[in-house]
Write a structure and sequence with these properties.
The structure is a single chain. This protein is α/β, with parallel strands linked by helices. The protein has a domain of about 150 residues: Beta Polymerase, domain 2 (2-Layer Sandwich), CATH 3.30.460. The protein contains eight helices and six strands, in the order H-H-E-H-E-H-E-E-E-E-H-H-H-H. It has a six-stranded mixed sheet with strand order 3-4-5-2-1-6. Strand 4 and strand 5 form a beta hairpin. Helix 5 runs antiparallel to helix 6, helix 5 crosses helix 7 and helix 7 packs antiparallel against helix 8.
């Protein structure tokens, strides 16, 4: 994690201002401001070269789906299991450095020009924590909304699925904010979660109630 310095905070505030100003026009990952948009375009070139689908998940997807207060310095992408090794090989000769990670950790890259990190979420891997692994694994990107070889944001029901699977306290807080930002999509989200795993649907119901209590009004 980057140290919290004055320069770091200044950059984060500038980013937050850019994101706020472009909220109604930054509909695709390629339209993210500054280095983040450039990294997405670089990732698109890699995906095109190996003919691979992928989606942007994580905090940027949380931001795109309505939690405007969430900002990150990383980009998370979901890749098909059979394309991860080829993607990493191509990345090493296309402006990225593949970082060394401990055994059992998922791949991580850094874009050399911008120093933006890229975290790989491989299809078939199990999210969660060591104490509480998720009951499901990461689905193929096409099940999350991938279209062709240009990055898109994961669809909201899939984002809720991945966020619940991660299971950390911040992830659950993100789900509450997404519920509050998307009250008209709750039925579709719950239907999706019920098809994936009953535990997710039950947890979602509890978080909907928490969101209502926090808002003080019905969703």
């Amino acid at each position: 994690m980057e140290p919290v310095t004055l320069d770091f905070l200044t950059i984060q505030l500038q980013l937050a201002e850019q994101l706020h100003a472009g909220r109604n026009r930054m509909f695709e990952p390629q339209e993210l401001p500054g280095p983040y948009g450039r990294v997405v375009v670089a990732l698109d070139h890699l995906l095109q070269a190996i003919q691979c689908e992928a989606v942007v998940g994580g905090v940027w997807a949380v931001w795109r789906h309505g939690y405007a207060g969430r900002v990150t310095r990383d980009i998370d992408i979901v890749l098909p299991a059979d394309k991860v090794d080829e993607f990493l090989r191509a990345a090493q000769v296309s402006g990225f450095q593949v970082l060394t990670v401990p055994p059992g950790r998922w791949p991580k890259l850094v874009h050399r020009e911008t120093t933006v990190d890229v975290d790989i979420l491989p299809e078939g891997q199990r999210p969660g924590t060591p104490a509480k692994p998720a009951p499901t694994t990461i689905p193929h990107p096409t099940r999350l909304g991938a279209l062709g070889t240009a990055l898109t944001y994961v669809r909201l029901p899939g984002l809720i699925e991945l966020t619940l699977a991660a299971g950390r306290s911040q992830d659950l807080a993100d789900v509450i904010k997404l519920i509050q930002a998307n009250p008209d999509q709750l039925s579709a989200i719950r239907e999706h979660l019920t098809e994936v795993h009953a535990d997710y649907a039950a947890q979602f119901d509890r978080l909907v109630q928490s969101a209502r209590d926090e808002d003080g009004e019905a969703l």
